[in-house]
Amino acid sequence: MAALRKIKSPYCIIVLLIMLIIFLLSYNSCNPTTETVDTGALKSQPPADKIVADSRINNSLLQLLRRTTMQDRTVIITMVGQEWASPGSVLDLFLESFRIGEETKPLLNHLLIVALDSKAFQYCKTVHPHCFYLSNSSTRYTKKKQLSLPQLRNKFWQEVIELAYSVVFTEVDVMWLRNPILQVDCLKEMTIACDVYSDDLQNISYVKDGGFFYLKSNAITSEYLKYQDMTRILFPDSQNRTLCEETVVNEELFETLSLKINYMEQDRYGGFCQQNINMDTICTVRANCCDDTESKLHDLKLLLEDWRSFTKKNSLRGSSPPYTWRAHSICKG
Q: Inter-axis angle of helices 118-127 and 90-100, to 10 degrees?
C-alpha cells in the first residue's frame, strides 16, 4: 500500500480549515457529554449510558448494542434493504454462511442487522433476533433531517462509535467462511479489506473493495466521521464513495488525523471480480461483479455449496487438496 501515498486530495486542506472554524464557533455551545468523545472514557469503556446521557438516544438501539456486543464492546453490523431481504434472498445466504463457516456460527450472537426500510425490517425479525430499523427519524443525529443513504449510514456509524462501541461492518453480500475479525489490529483505528490492483492509482474504479472494515471507537474515528459528513455536503459527488475508496483518495487526511489503518492480507478476502481464491486462507468472499440480483444469488449458492464440499473433503482426508471453485459462473471480473 506504499504506492497509495502518491495520491493527494485537492479538498483536504480546505475541509480541515472549515472543520476548525466550525469547531471554534460551536465549542462553547456544545454539550461535552453528548457532542464530543472523551478518549479516556473510551479506553476504559464504561457502560454507554454513562458516556452519553441524552434523551435523544434511541433506547432500542442502545439495548440492541448491549445485547450484541462482544466483551471488548465490538458489534458486527450489516445493512440491508427489501430487495435483498426476503425468503431465499441474499440476506438468507449471508446468515447461512455464518452457520456453515469455520467457527463463525457463534458470531451471529454479535450481529446487528440494520434494515433500511420497513419490509426489510419485518423480514429481518423472522430470521434473526437482533434487527434495527434505520430511518431519517431513528437516531439522534438524523431526527427531522432527510438524508441520503450514504449520509444515513455515516450518521449511524457515528452514533455507534460515540456510544463507545467499535464497529465491524460487513456488506450483506459478503460470505463469512472464516472469522475475519481475527485479522483486526485493535491498536489501529481502522482495519479494512481494501487494495488497489492497477497501476492507475488515480482511478478509484480499480479499487478492490472486500466489503469489510473495522472502526475502533475513539476520538479519532469520531472526528473522521464528522469530516465525512462535511465533505458530503461540500462535495456531493463524493457521496457514493466507499470507505475503501476514501482510504485511496484521502490518504493525506488520515495522516493529518493520525488515523492508523491496517490493510487486511489479500489472501484473507476476495470476491467474484477475482479469478482465483485460496480456500486454505480465505475468510470472506464478496459477490461483486454481478450484473443483477439473480446472478448474485446464483453464484453465492454455488459458493456455499463449494464451501460445504471443501470442508467435508478436508474432514475426511485431514488435509487440503487442490480445490477448484465453481463459483463464479455468471458474475465475472
A: 30
CB atoms within 10 A of CB 324: 7
CA dist list (Å): 162 to 47, 49, 54, 174: 12, 11, 12, 26
Instruction: Enumerate long-range contacts of 302-310, CB under 8 Å, 24 or more apart.
Output: 302/326, 302/327, 302/328, 302/329, 303/175, 303/327, 303/328, 304/93, 304/96, 304/97, 304/100, 304/175, 307/97, 307/100, 307/101, 307/175, 307/177, 307/279, 308/100, 310/279
Integer angstrom CA distances of residue 248 from 187, 218, 223:
21, 22, 18
> What pTM was computed for the model?
0.81
Q: Reply yes or no on whether the pLDDT at 232 is more than 50.
A: yes
Residue 193 in this model has a pLDDT that exceeds 60: yes
User: Virtual CA dihedral for 63, 65, 66, 69, nearest 10 degrees?
Assistant: 160
Grid coordinates representing 261?
489503518
Sequence-separated (6 or more) residues with CB below 8 Å from residue 122: none
3-state secondary structure string, 213-240?
A: EEECCCHHHHHHHHHHHHHHHHCHHHCC
Residue 330 has a pLDDT of: 86
> Which residues have CB under 8 Å from 273's CB, separation 6+?
208, 288, 289, 333
| Per-residue pLDDT at 98 | 98
Distance CA(304)–CA(101), nearest Å, equals 9
Q: Mean pLDDT for the chain?
A: 79
